[in-house]
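pinned: reference chain
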Amino acid sequence: MKQSLDKFIMGTCHLLERQGAFYLAFFVFNCLPMCCYMVMKKNGEAMFSFACFMLLINLVLCFLIDKLPELAQKILKLVLLAVFFVPFLIEGVVVYNYTALIGVGVVASLLETNMKEAGEFVTMYMGVQEWIWVVLLLSGGIWLFLNKPWQRLHFDQAGKRVLTSCLLAVTITYTVILFSLHIEVLWDTMFPMQRLVLSSSTAIDNIRAYRELSSHLDADVELTRNDGKIKNVVFILGESTNRNHMHLYGYYLPNTPNLDDMAARGEISVFRDVVSPHSTTIAVLSKLFTFCNHESDKPWYEYSNLIDIMNSAGYKTYW
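pinned: its structure tokens
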């Protein structure tokens, strides 16, 4: 038993010596965004367990790759790194800017953007500091992949055995903890590639459904009157506000002095006999921006909406 365990440990050590560059790069591509996200969410325990689990998964992958011929190994590793780098880069930007992982909204935005919008996004979010980080990370990864500095570290058999044993013990222990306490972060959300593929499938279905629905709608909005002289209309939607907490609508504290003054001068219209169709923002918007109301017999998305009406009136609309 002891000899078998020792053989397994030393075999793992030699495997890491041969596949160390790929092992490290693939680990970073698949683990770094999720770990950063967990740190931002102040969930350090889950982050450490997840990192250990990914180290173990990568070790199994390296073991399988190591069984292939040398040329096949090189080709497969390059393909895997190239393919998995894309979701790593996308999710890295999303985590850094929005503290979120790849989701349907992110993929839908990518699918429906154009080069001009993409260029404006990069200009807005990628400053000098961000580009320096990108260059440093890419340079460091390429240097590690080409030079393999760990191969120049010389440990005796006992040192290699201790280091590899510690790696295996820690990764296996925290993988068990992850399965027992944080199983929700596994399976569908394990790899950035998984999140990208699953989100892409949903986003594509949503876009296809929207376009099919749009083709059945009455695109010709009939305007009963269009003699307005206002060149620009700005619609401001205020969320998380309750009229019962506004002095303008009778609240006892004078917390809306500017609105009170504007109402006294007749500069704003104050509606006092309006009933909300729902108690949540998203649900209200389905009625607010369409001709659908609480008594309608059709779903809201089968009605004309405010944006289409403004377009028919000759306005260029922007969200």
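why pinned: The two ends are 68 Å apart (CA to CA). The chain has two domains: 2-208, 222-312.
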